[in-house]
Amino acid sequence: MLSKPFSKIIGIVFGLLSVMVLLWASVIYGLTYITTSDVIDSFVRFDESNQHYIIQDTRIPRALIAAAVGSSLAIAGAIMQGLTKNPLASPSIFGINAGASFFVVIGVTFFGITSITGFTWLAFLGAALAAVVVYSLGSVGSEGLTPVKLTLAGAAIAALFSSLTQGMLTLNERSLDQVLFWLAGAVQGRDLDLLVSVLPYLIVGWVASLFMGKKMNVLMMGEDVAAGLGQNTILVKLSGAVIIVLLAGGAVAIAGPIGFIGIIIPHIARWLVGYDYRWVIPYSAVLGAMLLLMADIGARYLIMPQEVPIGVMTAFIGAPFFIYIARRGINE
């Protein structure tokens, strides 16, 4: 564990350098052979060759999208785990991703929406609805909000939205063709314009999350203690919920429902820097980008020349970790 502030800063710097290396590797490696000089030439001497088009239209957007989505999902998971005191909390487990996906499929199936802006707002709306329903169900009963009830409510809502989504897709082949690969979670084939359209919301979420660290540290001491110290706990929770919806909804709008990033990364961040959320959140951002970039690079080689959807790769990596956390118990 990194205990001193200077060592934590060094860790962040090292992580950012690692992200840069992985971005470069994401542009270089794949089915089509690309060299570093090809990348440089595509910017300074673009000649409309196949390699240059692949670099500009495919590899660079794909790398940037993977980094942005990985960071967003990891931050959302860290904030969810902190606010709910539940180590299993994440956008995928609590049905946030499933709710966003469900609303996107509704838009395609019943309203013929195919625009980037339409997908974005539908994803935000679905993520917000899922968050409200899960939180409400988890609060029912004399015991109030507990980690166990939150997890059960999240699993139930995720299953409900997923079942409804699959049901609509079986009734509408046009929708199935349009969103099936997107529902598996993928960053390949995504246009840079898609990231640009969602980026303002993600930036708001990233910046706002950095101001949540100190408030979450106080809230982790208990709501009564936080209120006694003058903190408006309701405002903190609402702010966290808005950030989660912006980041998780934006990530789903870009890449579809990619799971397990929000579970794995916050635990690794806390193992590295402890429970100080002033450090957990930025570490989660960097580590989330690293993990999704590595998963995307690996997805290209697993069954080459075909590619595995990145959502399948993260599930393959995250499922054993999820089982490990679940076996430790969610009341730790």
Automatic annotation (TrEMBL):
One of its GO terms (cellular component) is plasma membrane. InterPro entries: ABC_BtuC-like (IPR037294), ABC_transptr_permease_BtuC (IPR000522). The keyword Protein biosynthesis does not apply. GO terms for molecular function: transmembrane transporter activity. GO terms for biological process: siderophore-iron import into cell. It is a multi-pass membrane protein. The chain crosses the membrane at residues 12-34, 60-80, 92-113, 119-138, 150-172, 192-213, 234-265, 277-295, 307-326. It is found in: Cell membrane. Keywords: Cell membrane, Membrane, Transmembrane, Transmembrane helix, Transport. Belongs to the binding-protein-dependent transport system permease family. FecCD subfamily. This is Iron ABC transporter.
